[in-house]
Amino acid sequence: MTNLEIVKSTYEGKSSEENGKNLQKFLASGAVWTEAAGFPLAGNYVGFEEIMQNVFYRLATEWIDYKFTPEGYVAEGDKVVAFGTYSGTYKETNKFFKARVAHLWQLENDSIISFEQFVDSKTVDDATK
User: How far, in Å, are 31, 55, 71, 87, 126 from residue 50 at the CA level?
Assistant: First the structure.
């Protein structure tokens, strides 16, 4: 698989479960995952377990229909950028949001070694208040 195909497989599977399995399959053991400053899940997480606990578990339990809708990709060498829109409703406030986002993935030897999120975090944070 190309780096672009690997990244696409984490977004465009037949289900969220398939996307998660593909992420786990291609994620290097020491991969660093960065959620943007100002974002409700802001921080750096290392390895699949930390990423699942601090990002995906929280998205699944704190939000209703939280999703990333990809609009396109840019790939060059060992980097892939996915861009699109986040949307969802925060359970505690019942506030809906929509935010533009880009994800920068870095790969090495067919493994994801880092992920960095760039997002209009104010719109997301506003939904939590």
Answer: 10, 8, 27, 23, 25
